[in-house]
Amino acid sequence: MDSFEEQTGRRTVLKAGIGLGIQLGLAGTVAGQGSPAAARPKEGDWLVKANDPTATPLTPADIQLGARQTMAWALDPSDKTVRSGSRLNRVLLIRLDPAKLSSETIPRAAEGILAYTAVCTHTGCEVSEWVSEDQTLFCPCHDSKYDPKDGAKVLDGPAPRPLPALPLKIVEGKLVVAKGFTSPVGFEAP
Is residue 91 within 8 Å of residue 69, measured between CB atoms? Predict the structure, then answer.
């Protein structure tokens, strides 16, 4: 049987190794966050359709009224960096009748086009479904339902808060980020 000193020495080495591993992991995470592709969308960024290899800026005509949401990324117009380095930057775009938007939602819309994070606030699944009958966004993982007409407030399910919005404007015919997300993008830890 090992002596108390040997056990204590091994524990110390093990704890130090774990601590170093955590620090290196955090340093890698922080370094990744410093990447321009991982930076959050910012004022002046253009929006491009996700999986578009040409990264063509979206226009209002690209987003159809009442149709299924379009998944997008922000693009820095100065250096053409697509901000796809973090899944927390994935944005969903939807176009609704401006007359049906709440007073809180209207200032964030551009010709009825709204942008919200595509990351569910419950456990981080993708809000991937559009329920056209009641014009709601739906996360199929745990059945959270959001009302995009009213600031993406939670209508049903376990989501603890609305989807953060990304205010939009139109500049020279392109959909452009007017301001950063209205609240932090993220989710509850499972």
Answer: no
The two tokens of residue 127 are: 């809000």
Give the pLDDT of residue 117.
98
Residue 155: count other Cβ atoms within 10 Å of its Cβ: 15
Inter-residue contact 139 to 150 (CB < 8 Å): no
Q: How far apart are CA 105 and CA 101, in angstroms?
A: 6
For residue 24, the model assigns a pLDDT of 37
Which residues share a beta bridge with 57? 48
| Residue 87 contacts residue 33 (beta carbons within 8 Å) | no
From residue 31, alpha-carbon distances to 11, 73, 90, 157, 187 in Å are 30, 21, 20, 35, 22
Domain topology for 46-177: Rieske Iron-sulfur Protein (2.102.10)
Domain range annotation of the chain: 1-33, 46-177
pLDDT of residue 188: 80
**pLDDT < 50 positions in the chain:** 8, 10-32
What confidence score (pLDDT) does residue 110 get? Answer: 98
Which residues, 6+ apart, have CB-to-CB distance to 151 below 8 Å?
Answer: 102, 104, 105, 162, 165
